[in-house]
């Protein structure tokens, strides 16, 4: 018997929790139905391009790391000044001190020209790898722009839905005023006068209309009957 009672209490507690969950879901569903506009999110999340490029660079193989390293070395200005100093010193040394490479310096031309082909290939590969960051930035900028346009469009649709609801409620208020025998112009005049304190409150003005007096008499009769 105690086990059966404990099981029944657990079933009741589970039933209560299920009902509360269903009531909460139904409440959320009712709130969603009352919403004027249901936005749709753009399927993209912003990313840090620097972190992505750094991770791709760290995950590169040996050849890619060599290409990137040599590209960074040969595109630096200290490398340029070092090569220029070597060429100038070579020419001055052959013109003054030693004459192992006379004019037109064939050995210098050979040493300067032969490495150009492999260096050109390595530098082109390295520039392609380093240009990956610009590609990631361009893609991120495109997706961010598209997300911004989508959000602006959603905001415009939301504002349009609000305008429609405001117009609908305005028509409803106008019909209610006309049902009490008050035109919109009279309502605006009474509202302006009430803000200046020159006339009685607006409720008194509504009560002074035929429909308002009848409604007040009916409410008085109901209170007396109670």
Automatic annotation (TrEMBL):
Region Disordered: start-end pairs: 1-24, 199-226
Stretches with biased composition (Basic and acidic residues): 1-14
Keyword terms of this UniProt record: Membrane, Transmembrane, Transmembrane helix
UniProt cross-references to InterPro entries, sorted A to Z: DUF1003 (IPR010406)
Spans through the membrane: 80-100, 106-126
Biased composition (Polar residues): 15-24, 206-218
Pfam entry (one): DUF1003
Domain of life: Bacteria
Name the record gives this protein: DUF1003 domain-containing protein
């Amino acid at each position: 018997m105690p086990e059966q009672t404990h099981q029944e209490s657990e079933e009741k507690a589970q039933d209560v929790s299920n009902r509360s969950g269903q009531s909460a879901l139904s409440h959320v569903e009712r709130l969603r139905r009352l919403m004027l506009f249901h936005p749709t999110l753009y399927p993209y999340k912003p990313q840090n391009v620097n972190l992505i490029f750094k991770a791709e660079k760290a995950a590169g193989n040996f050849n890619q790391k060599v290409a990137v390293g040599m590209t960074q070395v040969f595109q630096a200005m200290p490398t340029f000044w070092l090569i220029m100093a070597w060429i100038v010193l070579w020419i001055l040394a052959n013109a003054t001190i030693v004459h192992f490479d006379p004019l037109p310096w064939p050995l210098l031309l050979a040493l300067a020209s032969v490495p150009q082909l492999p260096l050109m290939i390595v530098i082109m590969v390295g520039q392609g790898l380093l240009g990956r960051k610009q590609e990631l930035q361009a893609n991120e900028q495109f997706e961010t722009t598209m997300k911004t346009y989508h959000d602006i469009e959603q905001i415009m649709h939301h504002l349009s839905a609000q305008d429609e609801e405001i117009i609908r409620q305005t028509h409803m208020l106008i019909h209610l005023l006309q049902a009490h025998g008050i035109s919109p112009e009279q309502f605006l005049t009474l509202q302006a006068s009430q803000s200046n304190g020159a006339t009685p409150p607006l409720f008194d003005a509504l009560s002074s209309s035929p429909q308002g007096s009848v409604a007040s008499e009916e409410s008085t009769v109901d209170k007396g009957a109670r």
